[in-house]
Amino acid sequence: MQAHHLIISILLLFVGYTNNDETIKWQDTQKLSWEDFKGTPNPDSDAVALTASGITFGYSVKTRGKRIVGYSTTVEAHFYPKKSWYHSEKADDYILAHEQLHFDITELYVRKFRQQLERLVVNQNIKVQMGQIHEAINDALDKTQKMYDEQTNHSIVVEAQAYWQNYIKEELAKLDKYKSQ
User: DSSP letter at 176?
Assistant: First the structure.
């Protein structure tokens, strides 16, 4: 009984959110709007807006006896409206494009995650391997999000913002096979 409880707890950690959280799944055909940002702005922040997005991950394994013989996964990029906010008096379309790119970067790492999961070969350590990939992808995503904000100075450096827009567009295209549907 304890082992069953442990597996469920680990799975919830991997998924990273509860069904009660309002989310927006990344879609190629739908961009964020200011109406999607429903959180309360941080009065102590110099930021005009904040995008809360992340990767949700779940998996199941197929067993025959005690042996793992197959697996399936779900990996999605989600935007969290109630944790995302903006200062309406300072927000404009340029800032919204900067925030959208944060969400697009999350989708890029979802695609990288799916690519790596596809390469896994079924084995008895597959759960550990998926967890390791999940952790590494989240670390890389976090570093990229921080680098994006540092290099663009949170969108202020227009040339850097243009570079990142083009770079992420190209990287997403390279992994189009793994695009969220």
Answer: G
Domain contains 100: yes
H helices, E strands: number in the chain: 4, 5
Is 76 a member of any domain? yes
Scanning the chain, the segments in alpha helix (DSSP H) are 2-15, 93-119, 126-152, 158-174
Query: 115-137 burial, b for 16+ CB within 10 Å, e for fewer?
Result: ebbeeeeeeeebbeebbebbeeb
Q: Does 181 fall in a domain?
A: no
Average pLDDT for consecutive 10-residue bins of the chain (181 residues)? 30 41 94 98 92 97 95 97 95 97 98 98 96 98 98 97 98 97 87
Q: Per the domain annotation, does 121 fall within a domain?
A: yes
Is the CB of residue 61 less than 8 Å from the CB of residue 126? yes
Q: What is the domain range of residue 122?
A: 2-176
The answer to pTM > 0.70 is yes
Number of domains making up the chain: 1
Give the SS3 label for residue 24.
Answer: strand
